[in-house]
Design goal:
- The structure is a single chain.
- By secondary structure, the chain is α+β, with helices and mostly antiparallel strands.
- The protein contains 15 helices and 8 strands.
- A hairpin with a 1-residue loop joins β5 and β6.
- The chain starts with 12 loop residues before the first helix and ends in a 9-residue tail after the last helix.
- Bound molecules: zinc ion.
- Zinc ion binds next to β5.
């Protein structure tokens, strides 16, 4: 352990820097290969130039001597400097990587004959320059934006999407992986993705703000989360106003235990393989999020789920559901990605901004929308 030397108030930063440069230069010479001083003396003799008094860099050194040096000698000088840089160890090499570093190297080349250093400080007063090897710009992430983090903390999904820049920007940020603060696994978010590879967490998750949609015919006592419930009310009204007829619904939220019964019933009818193409296992159903609803066409009485696809209501929903925040989650011909046979009746709420981006982007699965792997099987 060396003794502690108190700071010397007489030493100005500039003098301190100069001393540091001289110390480095001396240290560098100490590890210079034996061939180097001889080559240096020969070069100096050939050039006839006086000692370089105030070297300010490798270029300056070569320029002073270059007036009388041939190109071959210049190359020899460059070789010497290169050898010097290689020999001066990690500190000098690091310093040489920056502009100031060249001055240290040049000082090394003349230190044995140069008079006391009188030029400008070889290194900044604050110390040796830090090598700037590569300027790697930090990846911009919306998670650094206080507006985004505040919206996330408040639980306002629409505000989060707005803060990130809208549905397209949100999708892009999530799919590209630059928004780790946005979790597609959070069952409380309208953007949660549940499929055969992405169970609910916790498996028996139960949404907290379930309400019955107003002014919509419910064939079961089955609620939705408040945002999709309001949106469904608007959708049903709009369809009716457009002359598409009445839309009712069968099933919306299903608890973990209800889903167990639903799935078991399907297995009883068609076996596991068939059931898995049509019904989710408990803990893997969108219905457990309170964000999905199975709609039916009504005309006096209501039809079945299978009737929606070919009904005027189904046609209207295909064209307009996105305007109310819903998507057809299990589209025609996408079983290899979504894991399910097409279900024209199964409408999944993802919020208006995301549904707009989904619709306008021409997406047919939520997996592709968010850049997630296909989930054909468990
Ligand atoms: Zn469904």
């Amino acid at each position: 352990m060396g003794r502690v030397i108190p700071p010397d108030p007489e030493r100005s930063p500039r003098r301190a820097a100069r001393a540091e440069a001289e110390r480095l230069a001396t240290a560098a010479v100490a590890v210079t290969p034996p061939v180097e001083p001889a080559t240096r003396r020969r070069l100096r003799a050939e050039s006839g130039a006086p000692s370089v008094r105030a070297p300010v860099g490798i270029r300056a050194l070569l320029a002073v001597r270059g007036g009388t040096l041939t190109m071959r000698r210049r190359r020899a000088g460059l070789l010497v400097v290169a050898l010097l840089i290689m020999a001066t160890g990690a500190v000098a090499i690091g310093a040489a990587a920056s502009a100031g570093g060249g001055e240290v190297a040049a000082q090394t080349a003349t230190v044995d004959t140069a008079p006391a250093f009188q030029g400008p400080p070889a290194v900044p007063a604050e110390g040796l320059p830090v090598p700037q090897l590569a300027a790697v710009p930090a990846t911009a992430t919306p998670c650094d934006d206080p507006a985004v983090t505040a919206a996330l903390a408040s639980g306002d999904d629409a505000a989060v999407i707005s803060a990130i820049g809208g549905g397209d920007a949100f999708r892009e940020a999530v799919a590209s992986g630059i928004a780790p603060c946005v979790s597609l696994s959070d069952p409380n978010r309208e953007w949660v993705v549940v499929n055969k590879q992405r169970p609910l967490d916790p498996l028996d998750y139960r949404a907290g703000d379930l309400v019955m949609p107003q002014n919509v015919r419910a064939l079961e006592e089955s609620a939705l989360r408040s945002a999709p419930a309001s949106a469904l009310t608007e959708l049903v009204r709009a369809a009716s106003d457009a002359g598409a007829g009445e839309i009712g619904f069968l099933s919306a939220f299903r608890s973990y235990s209800t889903q167990q019964s639903t799935y078991a019933g399907r297995v009883d009818v068609g076996g596991v393989e068939e059931a898995d193409r049509e019904s989710a296992r408990a803990g893997y159903s969108e219905h457990q999020t309170g964000l999905a609803v199975d709609i039916v066409p009504c005309d006096g009485s209501c039809g079945t789920l299978d009737d929606i696809a070919s009904s005027p209501q189904g046609a209207w929903v295909r064209d307009h559901a996105w305007e109310y925040g819903f998507i057809t989650r299990y589209a025609e011909g996408r079983e290899s990605v979504s894991g399910y046979l097409p279900e024209a009746w199964h409408q999944r709420y993802i919020g208006r901004e995301l549904a707009r981006a989904y619709h306008e982007g021409g997406y047919t699965t939520l997996e592709e929308f968010f850049g997630l792997p296909a989930a054909p099987t468990y």
